Amino acid sequence: MSTQQTDRVAQALDSFRVELPSWGFSNTGTRFGKYLQPAAAATIEEKFSDAAQVHCVTGACPTLALHVLWDLPNGAADVPKMETLARRHGIEPGSINPNLFEEQVYKFGSFGNPDAEVRRHALQHTRDSVEIARRLNSRDVVLWFADGSNYPGTANIRQRKRWFEEHLRELHSAVGDAQRLLVEYKPFEPAFYHTDIADWGMALAFARAAGPRARVLVDTGHHYQSQNMEQIVAWLLSEDMLGGFHFNDRRYGDDDLTLGSIDP
Amino acid sequence: MSTQQTDRVAQALDSFRVELPSWGFSNTGTRFGKYLQPAAAATIEEKFSDAAQVHCVTGACPTLALHVLWDLPNGAADVPKMETLARRHGIEPGSINPNLFEEQVYKFGSFGNPDAEVRRHALQHTRDSVEIARRLNSRDVVLWFADGSNYPGTANIRQRKRWFEEHLRELHSAVGDAQRLLVEYKPFEPAFYHTDIADWGMALAFARAAGPRARVLVDTGHHYQSQNMEQIVAWLLSEDMLGGFHFNDRRYGDDDLTLGSIDP
Amino acid sequence: MSTQQTDRVAQALDSFRVELPSWGFSNTGTRFGKYLQPAAAATIEEKFSDAAQVHCVTGACPTLALHVLWDLPNGAADVPKMETLARRHGIEPGSINPNLFEEQVYKFGSFGNPDAEVRRHALQHTRDSVEIARRLNSRDVVLWFADGSNYPGTANIRQRKRWFEEHLRELHSAVGDAQRLLVEYKPFEPAFYHTDIADWGMALAFARAAGPRARVLVDTGHHYQSQNMEQIVAWLLSEDMLGGFHFNDRRYGDDDLTLGSIDP
Amino acid sequence: MSTQQTDRVAQALDSFRVELPSWGFSNTGTRFGKYLQPAAAATIEEKFSDAAQVHCVTGACPTLALHVLWDLPNGAADVPKMETLARRHGIEPGSINPNLFEEQVYKFGSFGNPDAEVRRHALQHTRDSVEIARRLNSRDVVLWFADGSNYPGTANIRQRKRWFEEHLRELHSAVGDAQRLLVEYKPFEPAFYHTDIADWGMALAFARAAGPRARVLVDTGHHYQSQNMEQIVAWLLSEDMLGGFHFNDRRYGDDDLTLGSIDP
Fold it and tell me: Which of B207, B210, C118, D264 to pair with C140, CA 20 to 30 A apart?
């Protein structure tokens, strides 16, 4: 490599930023249970504090992704609290993440739910998330949908696709000029027969249906065995539709482990 | 097929029995949450009652697999209660299932834990399970181990293998003549780098190391993508080491759904 | 089901047609060799004759897919011969299949080859195929590309994507109103790092880039382990972009066995 | 690491040897065809010469694995020729590899073939290979079997297992004290329903059935998606049954590419 090329790589690395997810500091586990860690963050204050510690060491993590349901349980009313914490810890609020799977009404889906009432409820929650993002000056609202079905023949895949298109379009109309919607895909889990946004092709179609400020989010853990992720990224770049990454590991499924960390 | 062959198939089906797992009647879910069902069983009484209902309809499910931690929280002291429920509902106690993953001490394993104290604790729990099985006239104690590690280089696989051999042998010495130990295998989850009993070959080696009353249990959900399960069953039959089955579905991972049921 | 629904299913089955591939009657095998069968078809005459036999038994296979290189080695000059055989055996020529991998020039690809000369050569062969199809009154030209690379960093994926778009567009301009281009996808083999048209999303984008008479062809053997094919078909139907199917089995890779047949 | 540990690693690397396979210097390809390379070796002389070149550069490749059918088409009669070439090029003959799939008689298997005549033929070829190894002072005879079936219900898996055990035992009786039989496993290809030696557990059982001078050979390309190879190696080491490795890459299937080389 020439000095010029080396400089370019060094500059790219200098401006490289990795956003920390607030939920990454909590105790987590599998459906079989959680092994608790004494130092795990229990409150949003502790998550900001932990993020500040990581940024202090790395210099590359100035923002914290927030989860609406877990970090702002009172919705927009919690915005001032986030602003206070952000100032106190020198960490900016990052992407805003609605939750469309934890409430019991989402049993058969959110934007794809056969019940119009539930779809409206889900839409309202994502609109609230867009509003929270706007007030926090966060650019990105990240949409991960757990929607899907567990057995063949129990869901109308094409009808659900239409509902997704409609609701994404409607949500997009609330998105400001400086904002973006990121549409994430995942082949399986928690749904085990079909997932409404299963791969990059579906996420791309939905992002386009949503509108010009929607992009695709690539989670490195959300692929089939042996799938060529680099090629997907190359295609999204080529189509100017790459919105960002979630860096998770993947060996067997969506293993969702911290990349490269050490266990005991 | 000749009439003789048809008769043989019919007779085989007449004597075919499927044991129901008590935990199959409860609310379950994924790491993302549980969608609750009003009719889900909440107590061991309700599980016996539900099992009786299934047996009433099928005529093929006369026994109920019990989970020591969840169904007999007081251990052997709960045996009389099980006997009462069994009589009341006309359902016999089936296999006894210890739990070696729910307590915090099992974070780094049970029989494979580097801490001798934890290994002894796990051994005691499995010995208690054998004793419960003896008192309930249950033939089988089913051993599923969640033991494993999440990152390369964090566990000594060969040392753990020795610990497993030792503890299985010791446990086997407590097993009565009419009893059996069933050793289950699973390639991954909850551990995401290595699982100490990952496949049928490891389960077979451990069952042999345990002693003459140990066999291998095949869970139809615990295999790699595309693996030929029928061949594994043929091999275990040929080696006279097939102990039984858990019937779970599998599409992506260990999806653990009721086979063939309907969702909404 | 109501009688009306039953009737509808019966009518759908009455009009259901499966095209036979001429190459399916030949000896085939794996990279490890071919086991020869005395009754395998050796000439195009025998392939037409075998197809007629299948149609005679099934009543559902009136057409024969032709492979340009193997069945019309002289290109359009062989059209009259095909017509004669079609008349003689009562079997119509079906889809026309160019070959873009057998010549040595295709080592680094056809439409994606870095060498413009090779790309032109490939384009000419597909234009010839369109012309053959036109003269045989065949509606469909099926494009399967073996293009790809075997190691990371050896191919410019985005540049190759542009070449594909250009050449598909140019080819489409030669396609008649009653004709269609079908774009097939396949995740791997013969390329083992990246395949230029790896999944349905890429095939869809290329079919759209080609023009209004291009559609996606789904080969049931060309998917990742556990991928939900029915959902892909539902999406392509919903987008009005489903062109047809190749029915191949798949257990491990693209096993390419006759579906459901018996071996010895 | 301490200096002592560093020294130990350095010494291990100093004595590390990788055997070259003679067939690795030839033109190879997929079932779709071979792209020819002008410099590919066409004769056994050229393969020895190429191997000498690699050893000259690496200092770690002093032996050449030989393929009986391709390199010694006249069997033991070709031994003197091998000796001459070995001397001329300073490369010793390495493992001896019989071929049990290329002849038409092997359509339904070799050691597992339902036809006793074919089993005897296969046994004779492997005995000849042992004899060739003995005369060339080669320690290892590597047994890879393509045996399997393509559809459920067409092969008697348990009977084939017995035939394998018998013939391996008989073959082992011909193996000298300084020799070894290495039993290789592979989950699929060329057989697409079942392969008689599909995984390490089956290879281990067969190696034990054969006799004390049999071991398991691990081909790094012959595993299921996501299978933990390191754990298998740890188990084989622990059982003192690890015989050696074939280093092949694997991304999708048994991709069989040169590890890490560059394409264009």
Answer: C118
With vertex at residue D198, the alpha carbon angle to CA C251 and CA D168, rounded to the nearest 5 degrees, is 145
Report, in angstroms and rounded to the nearest whole number, the Rg of chain D calculated over CA atoms: 19
Judged by a CB distance cut-off of 8 A, whether residue C230 touches chain B is no
Give dist(CA C202, CA C111) in Å, integer: 15
Amino acid at residue number A62? P
- State the smallest CA–CA distance between residue D155 and chain C in angstroms: 9
Q: How far is A152 from chain B (nearest CA, A)?
A: 9
Instruction: Check C237 against A158: CB less than 8 A apart.
Output: yes
Mind listing the pLDDT tens digit for each residue in A155-204? 999 999 999 999 999 999 999 999 999 999 999 999 999 999 999 999 99
Over range C114-127, report the average pLDDT.
98
Neighbours of chain A (3+ CB pairs under 8 A): B, C, D
Q: In this complex, do B151 and A107 lie within 8 Å of one another by their Cβ atoms? A: no
**CB burial string B104-129: b at 16+ within 10 A, e below:** ebbbbbbbbbeeeebbebbbebbbbb
Strand D63-67 relative to strand D92-97, pairing: parallel
What is the complex's ipTM, to 2 decimals?
0.95
Q: Do A158 and C238 count as a contact with CB atoms less than 8 A apart?
A: yes
Confidence category of residue B232, pLDDT binned at 50, 70, 90:
very high
Contacts 24+ apart (CB under 8 A), D55-59: D55/D20, D55/D90, D55/D91, D58/D18
Measure in Å the smallest separation between the Cα of B248 and chain A Cα atoms: 13
Q: Report how far residue D85's alpha carbon sits from residue D68's, in angstroms, rounded to the nearest whole number.
A: 15
Residues of chain A where predicted confidence (pLDDT) is lower than 50: 260-264
Count how many residues are written for chain C. Answer: 264
How much is the mean pLDDT over chain B? 95
- The phi, psi pair for C76, rounded to 5°, reads -60, -25
For residue A141 the two structure tokens come to: 């609202």
Which of B226, B251, B252 minimises the CB distance to C252? B226
CB A251 to CB D226 under 8 A?
yes
pLDDT one-digit tens code per residue, C192-207: 999 999 999 999 999 9
Q: Grade residue D204 by pLDDT with cuts at 50, 70 and 90.
A: very high
Q: From the CA atom positions of chain B, what is the Rg in Å?
A: 19
Question: What is the torsional sign of CA A156, A158, A161, A167?
Answer: negative
Beta pairing partners, A207: none
Residue B46 half-sphere exposure toward CB, CA atoms < 13 A: 11
- CA angle (D192, D195, D197) in 5-degree steps: 155
Interface size, chain B vs chain C, as Cβ–Cβ contacts under 8 Å? 7
Given this model, what pLDDT does residue A111 score?
Answer: 98
- How many other β-carbons are positioned within 10 Å of the β-carbon of residue C127? 17
User: Is the pLDDT confidence value at B142 over 70?
Assistant: yes
Q: Which residues of D touch B201 (CB under 8 A)?
A: 199-202, 204, 235
C200-210 and A200-210 helices, crossing angle to 10°: 50
Beta carbon pairs, B and D, within 8 Å: 74
Mean pLDDT for the stretch of residues D235-264: 82
Residue C242 has pLDDT above 90, yes or no: yes
For residue C261, pLDDT beyond 60: no
Which D positions 53-92 lie with beta carbon below 8 A of chain C? none
CB-based contact D201 B198, cutoff 8 Å: no
Confirm or reject contact between D259 and chain B (CB < 8 A): no
Q: Is D152 on the interface with B (CB under 8 A)?
A: yes
Nearest CA in chain C to B252: C226
- Which residues of chain D are within 8 Å of residue B204 when distances are taken between CB atoms? 201
For residue B257, the model assigns a pLDDT of 82
B190 contacts A30? CB cut-off 8 A: yes
Buried b (16+ CB within 10 A) or exposed e, B223-248: bbbbbbbebbbbbbebbebbbbebeb
